[in-house]
Amino acid sequence: MKNIALPLIVGAAVTSCQMEQKQPNVLIILTDDQGWGDVGIHGNPLINTPTLDKLYERSAVLNHFYVCPLSATSRASLLTGRYHLRTWVSHVDRGLENMNPDETTIAEAFKASGYQTGCFGKWHNGAYYPYTPNGQGFDEFVGFSDGLTLNYFDPLLQRNDVWGREKGFITDIFTDNAIRFIEKNRDKPFLCYIPYNAPHAPYQVPDEYFDRYAGLTANNQRDRDVLASVYAMVENIDYNISRILDKLDELNLAENTIVVFMSDNGPTTVQRYNGGMRGQKSTVYEGGIRVPCFISWKGKIDHRLIEAPTSVIDIMPTLLGLCGITDYQTAFPIDGIDLKDLINGKTDRLPEERMIFTHVWGGQLAPYVGSVRTNDYRLSVFRDRAELYHIKDDPGESNNLYGRDAQRAKTLHEAYLKWFDDASQNVKLDPLVPVGYDEARTVRIQAPEGKMHGQLAYYSRIPNRSWAHHFESPDDYLTFELDAVRTGDYEIAVEYSQPDAGFPMLVAECGTSVVKAGLPQYRADSIPSPDRVLRWQAHEKNWGMQSIGVVSLQKGRHTLKLYVDQTPLKDIQINTILITRK
After folding, report:
1. Quick one: pLDDT at residue 580?
2. Lowest CB count within 10 Å: 1, 26, 274, 564, which one?
3. Domain covering 12-343 in this structure, CATH number
4. In angstroms, how far is the first alpha carbon of the chain from the final one?
5. Which of 443, 492, 500, 491 is nearest to 471 (CA)?
6. For residue 426, how many other CB atoms are within 10 A of its CB?
């Protein structure tokens, strides 16, 4: 088990809400790449989201709600109430998405107060125990731990740490499992976290949804198909949310369940309606980081539009506050604030001095690109410039005041740089892969998670779920930095494709051990992908499996090196390395 200081909830069993009934349940719905404008009630005339529109009407709406520009960073802040850089998370792949396992997560905080916890969807804060949902406080997990899965129909998913292929469309599958979790825990307080991976690419969606948007117009056929796919996927999400809310009504849980709906960043394409905001995903302009956020509690929270700037870091402390859980401790200080009084109408403005910061990976850990938001202004910082906008008067960020309001710009720029220096001091840029835990005896490492040497490359332009190839000589090799948490014997195996009739030898060096095995001929064929748009991600394949041998490791850090000791006649592809403690 991980060594973590769990929250201590003192006297939680006698809070006022529990004296009347069991503690309120919490349902958090997070979507992936759904922009502020991808909701009908926000003025989008093309999209059909009747459930979200109704939820808006019965929610406290955080109308200026800010997340991070990329998925893993927003998720880390949601789960901890802290700026993502403090949690080690700086990017979306190659281990930079791994969240410090010593963080106190929202699941651990609620679990310490007697809640059942479940996560159903895309995790994206670490694919290896104890970074995984089960290692971070969730009793149940169905989904995938990294940032991408390659097929949305009959997907390969995890049930806790067991992989298997599920039947159906992925958003429906996550909803089915969330509903079963709710049904099973109807008589207990529960935290149900549903981080959907739609409408993120690859663009796959059932015909009945896609066909409804066949009449859309765009600059070209690809743009039309992307737009239709995104809106169709959002409409499918909307339907699945209705299934969950109907289940809460059916089980008489609606009046004792807090529902949060939000997205993780802005839209991926500029063709989509986004309320006239500038920017998109991966930018620090409004369009990249302002997203929908609705907080509903039937009979307890009235509909109101909250214009004060709020942040993803506020969700954890706000939910704890709404549930009356006040005497808790976390391993590290929380950056967010409890918005309970704002949501309940006791105030309509946050302190003037409050600043909300954000940052996005710029190819290295540096104080660009980032921004700071106050009640009225946003300063954005880039490699070669900074820009200042009065957001209330100029929501489209078209009138740069940096040169005309020099003192304000200087004050905010200095505040941002000071924040970055503080928040980034513990970021892990060379993360280790932990192996040997009893809770995860087998660790699956995607090949691009390692460092590639020589002519090696990963197949697609993004590394998630891709594979390594161009093993043309022993100088072309992969290395992985491992942390063996126990001394013992570890089996090394690979998922691979090798189309040649010969037996090229794959060599694994780790610790003081060197093992090798021939790779039998096996051609991994692509599994059909019902894409609406030509993808840039890799395709899923039916990989072969081969054990390379068993290495003996002492507890501590080791470098695993993989290479082929003879030049193959055709390309070898390595997809996944599996390390199993014997």
Report:
1. 98
2. 1
3. 3.40.720.10
4. 18
5. 500
6. 12
